[in-house]
Specification:
Layout (H helix, E strand, L loop, with lengths): L1 H8 L6 H8 L3 H18 L3 E11 L25 H13 L4 E6 L5 H17 L5 E5 L5 H9 L4 E3 L7 H6 L9 H14 L2 E4 L2 E2 L6 H13 L4 E6 L18 H18 L4 E4 L1 H6 L3 H7 L4 E2 L6 H4 L15 H14 L3 E2 L8 H8 L1
Parallel strand pairs: 1-2, 1-9, 1-10, 2-3, 3-4, 4-5, 5-7, 6-7, 7-8
Helix pairs in contact: 1-3, 2-9, 3-10, 4-5, 6-8
The structure holds 5'-deoxyadenosine (5AD), iron/sulfur cluster and FE2/S2 (inorganic) cluster.
Amino acid sequence: MSEKIKNILSQENFSKVDLAALLAAGEEDRKLVFAKAAEIKQAYVGNKVYYRGLIEFSNLCGKNCLYCGIRAGNKKARRYEVTEEEVLEAARYAWENKFGSLVLQAGERSGKDYVRRIERLLRQIKKMSNGELGITISLGEQSEETYRRWFEAGAHRYLLRIEVSNPDLYHRYHPKNKVHDYQTRLQSLFLLKKIGYQVGTGVMIGLPFQTVEDLAMDLLFFREHDIDMVGMGPYIEHEDTPMYRYKDQLLPKVDRFYLSLKMVAVLRILMKDINIAAATAMQAIDPMGREKAIKVGANIIMPNLTPSRYREDYLLYEDKPCTDEDAEECKRCLEARIHMAGGEIGYGEWGDSKHFEKRKKT
Ligand code: 5AD
Ligand code: SF4
Ligand code: FES
């Protein structure tokens, strides 16, 4: 078995079958995959880890993804919106602590007022930080005009997970209607790229009915779409969602964790110079989840800056870490964790994807 994995790892190109074999690697073989990924990470992106201070700005959402704890249909979710002053305060904290960048994330909403408010907020953050804070936004599917306005207001990276790249699976995890359409989501990724954003996407790992072949296709999807950054993590069931009924058919959580770790490692081998996030969901399963992800290829981490009183309401899945902590605690905690994983924090740097820089030059 190991010979087969070693052979695949010595190749320059990987087929779907190769990638699926790497993702299926057992306890011994996966060490080979992790070692190769660590080597490639060191050679192409080094050991710097960049911060993206995360502000979970609101859990209001107009959509109803069948897996998500803050879906519109979950009447148990207590809805909140962080005030403008609080966002600016969190942004100031990020700037003063040399985090380099922010991520503004929320459920998906539309409407003129909302678009304008976000636009204003982006301009205020830019102004407050003398243009020094980089801003990533993760605010779902929007019109081209909205994407453009937010880009002009100062956001320069956008995260929009495709969630699962297989359209048939996509439609199984979402209500079958126009607002949950695979093609629209895919189209959004093209629009974002056209406008000039650094584009990030990602998937959930260990979903019901998902196979290693599907995951191999997800990796090829990232490459085919020449993505600059990826954030992906394990699917974790949430009691108040329709998909909870499949909970007995899921892989055990540890297996989902290792599958996610292998996804990170194999992606680093496949796309050597992109930015890969150590997803918070990794830590919902393993207390050292994010450090492990850094060791095998991730180079981005998102310290939570959401004001403490809102944190436990941004529950997309169970056991989300950091809900009892505040910005200062997460900062200290992550610093220690990154050093333990042999990383160095890229303080005060945007840490843009090297892949993006190259893409711009060509
Ligand atoms: N488990 C893991 N990740 C989830 N997300 C939403 N619900 C879950 C869940 N139950 C992820 C989606 C979304 C991101 C913000 O959170 O991938 O894009
Ligand atoms: Fe809304 Fe995003 Fe959750 Fe879907 S995954 S319900 S769009 S917050
Ligand atoms: Fe939030 Fe450790 S990162 S408590």
